[in-house]
Amino acid sequence: MTATVELEIKNRKGLHARAAAAFVKVAETFDAVIEVERLGQKVSGCSIMGLMMLAAAKGTTVKVSAEGAQAEQAVQAIAKLVNDKFGED
Hints:
Layout: E1 2-8, H1 17-27, E2 33-38, E3 41-44, H2 48-53, E4 61-67, H3 71-83
Antiparallel strand pairs: 1-4, 2-3, 2-4
């Protein structure tokens, strides 16, 4: 199964270290391979450094794709995390 969603980064500091760590923590709980893409650059959703290298500031749109048995659940959980501003501001 495959699932994809485009998300706008809404928290004030963007996809910085703490937000990236929260993203990875959620991503690792699912039986799915997760990738995040911005401006043609794809990184693993389970790589804090990779996510930070996307330089996704507030207002940036990223595409999250998941493939695997829990792809839909993974995308939904990540969308909730991003839309909740990673529990920040």
